[in-house]
Amino acid sequence: MLRALLVDDEAKNLSGLEFLLHHDCEGIRVTGKSQSAEEARAFLKKNTVDVIFLDITMPHEDGFQLLESIDTTHLSVVFVTAHNEYTLRAIRASAVDYLLKPVNIDELQKAVEKVKLSVNNPLVAEQSRMLLQHFISLSGSKAIQKIAVPQLGGIRFVELDEIVSLQADSNYTILHLKDMQKLVISKTLKDFDELLDENEFVRIHKSYIVNTNYVKEYSGTDGGMVKMADGNRWSISRRQLDNFLEKMKQATLTFGKAK
After folding, report:
1. What's the predicted TM-score (pTM) here?
2. Are 208 and 165 in contact (CB under 8 A)?
3. Which domain range does residue 214 map to?
């Protein structure tokens, strides 16, 4: 039975989440509720839990500050947050679980199952710990510079400027890197479209996103085609053509000014 601590500054959110966990999720029990980081720390000094459902935006100390002040070695963390563009980008970059308020039952159940998997699998637990630490390090920065990619036996940290292009493959995405390597990630291209800086990474087709820094050639024949620095050639959809050309114009002007 998983032991859970819920942390949120609003009592109604705590009660609502406790209700959903009790009635709709198996194998988990709420052993504590705290309305501040200070209360959560005091609870954790006397009690052991397996997972914290943590609100990010709280007065005095936010969720990030709480995590920096406690030992997360044997803890799973599921963030519970209202929509915030930066926060969501950072969480997605680290592959850390999060739930949007109001909490969806299906998403909550999936998060609980992931926590169970990490508790019962030492390898998954170690990956989760490393991803969480990576996320905490991202939370204090203004821009995401790398993403954490879980792999068999560990995690690879990929700098964003290593990525030449991204290719959709059903519910997966293939990252094409500048060293000619390919990485298959269990995220959709839409996830990356929301994550990446739109000034550098441009969606050119339902199946492709390109890094404008690695575009070598553009051809208007056959509806539009780009050749990337690694030799790949991708089609540009008519729908995305104007946006692509505008982004390339901006990138070229920026490069010219830098000279």
Report:
1. 0.60
2. yes
3. 155-258
